[in-house]
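Subject line: Sequence and fold of a protein, written as structure tokens
Enclosed: The protein record, placed directly beneath this head.
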Amino acid sequence: MANRTHFGHTMTDEELQHKIDHEIKMRDGTAKLLAASKHPEQMLEAAKSLLACNSRMIAYMSELQKRKTDEAFGRRRSTEGDQLPCKARVAISDIRIPLMWKDTDHFKNKGDHRRYVVFCLLKIGTEIYDTSLIKDVDRSMTDVTFEDCIVFHNIPNGFECRLEVYCHKLCEDLTLASSHKKIKKKIDKLSGSIGKSVGRRLSGLTDSGILSNMIVGPKYDMIAHAQLTTSDVGDSVNTFDLSLEHTQENPSELPLFGNFCCRLAAQPYCLIEDTCSGFLYIEKVDDEDASIHWVRQWCVLKNLSISCWDCAEDEDWRVPPLSIPVTKESQISDADPSVIQRPFTFHVSSCEYGTIRKQYTLAAENKDDLQKWWDGLQQHLLDQVVWKDVCDTLMKIKPSNQKRLSLGRKVTSTLYDDTPGKQLTSTLYDDTPAVIPQKQKCRTASIRLESNNGASTTNNSEFSPLTMMLKKYAADEEPDAPVTRQRSRDSGISSS
């Protein structure tokens, strides 16, 4: 059997162009979905997907432009025939971002009830993935924890993984108004009690005038980022620095600590795929009479050793009777032609501190097989030298959950739970299973109201009459407001 190449597949220019076209279609469809969404959760998920689509499309276009520029200047050369180190699977999981609330907010239960939604973008080259959306992040939480395991494929050595944290502040007015018509009705009702001048201005507003003061869809801001490299790979969760993106144009109210925890694992393909496989003759010495005989066995070079079986079928179910270590301390050498008993013979020596501890003698069936095994062994040693400590042990990687449903994960609360009146408090540390109603009628607002921070809208002055009326309406809870009932699958408790 021919040796299996594991350098990883590099996308061609045609494949990049196909991915760009795909992301353009996804972006257009997501934009239409965002415009048609009426529920807050749909808008939040659609806006997140739109941001991820744009990031991927920009990455593909940048890579394609770079290739064309290198080709035009003659800097693009073929690597065919070169001995390159293998690529790897890289996984990032157990992401946890600690929060630093003021003691009056977290311990003394004072201050406002700011709530946020947070997610992360993870980028390695042109591969970009987004985590699940963590909703209702408030002062009761000490950190933001993501249960995602993001797996990247065909990643070369020397990679850089960029983590970006995005945040959106939820508007309290979102849970109080069912539509812009209800807002206008409330404004008309209150316009007679605030003076004739202002009342005439408010009562004359049309639906389009009200909508012009509202943002269609939520806006996410990047509040922090981090850079991880091959040296950060490890089999356990470690702490890394988080660079905050706090500027005057993009003020972040979410109190980040400046660090985050995650597990960055890597599996070089030389540990999980066959570098070389085929039949070899192995020299064995009889213990009784010290006679030498050769045994033909099926051999596979993978995971720092040559595993040997009697036949190829035993590989799938049997532990190899013989395993020859091929580590960074091993030596590969030709056999002495004057003493060898078979042609196409070579030695694999296990060394310790430069001293040969044990030597194995193997022979190929023909010259082509000898060259194949010689190249495979040199490749295996090169992979270990390049990946260094990453090749010492095979790290476990959790199954990837990138193609998840947004409501499939464990959630602790939804936007519909935070209505005024009776509330059920919950945190990320609750062990109660999430309650996700299959059919839910909700009359909460389908239009998001934004503050002036980072949003440019028509006539969005903080002291405009419309804004003042909306704030007054938010503080004045209606006693006869319609109640949204939500049935629990387990206990049948309904919350309003």
Q: What stands out?
A: The longest strand covers residues 143-155. The first helix runs from residue 13 to 36. The CA atoms of residues 11 and 17 lie 10 Å apart. The chain has nine helices and 17 strands.
